[in-house]
Write a structure and sequence with these properties.
The protein has 7 helices and 4 strands; from the N terminus they run αββαββααααα. It starts with a helix and ends with a helix.
């Protein structure tokens, strides 16, 4: 049974390391959860609330401890605005928000496609890892530039 799961790329571990398909699934699940939550939350001006109007609450750790914006400040509001179709607000909250949002959508779709086609796992491919790293670095760089302006 374990050998069959490994051949299908579904075994949780291969020795001490998680397999690529397991990592793909975990990453896609986290991305889908974040995108889904962005669709459930409600944008209200500069804040985000739960559907019943209760505030989301809690600032980021950087804001709470240091009273300084971090490079990702505004990303949640950007995702929520984009999930509700407001591109202008999404870019204002964090210019890299739409880039990361689209990258997450693309990643989830690509993982599903690789599973259906039984193709090699995405995270086992250097080109995919390099692309994800570049998108992450662009987002953080934009955030650092944004921090310098505030």
């Amino acid at each position: 049974m374990t050998l069959a799961l490994r051949r299908a790329g579904l075994a949780v571990t291969d020795g001490a390391r998680p397999t690529g398909r397991w990592l793909d699934g975990a990453g896609a699940a986290l991305a889908a959860a974040q995108l889904g939550l962005a669709a459930v939350l409600v944008p209200r001006g500069d804040t985000v609330t739960w559907p019943d109007g209760a505030p989301l609450g809690g600032a980021c750790v950087s804001q709470a401890l240091l009273h300084v914006d971090c490079p990702l400040c505004g990303m949640t509001r950007s995702f929520v605005a984009l999930a509700h179709g407001d591109l202008r607000a999404a870019v204002e909250f964090h210019p890299a928000g739409p880039l990361w949002f689209v990258a997450m959508l693309g990643f989830v779709a690509a993982v599903v496609t690789t599973w259906i086609r039984e193709a090699p796992p995405l995270l086992a491919r250097r080109s995919v890892l390099a692309t994800l790293e570049i998108v992450a670095l662009i987002g953080v760089a934009i955030g650092v530039i944004q921090m310098g302006r505030s």
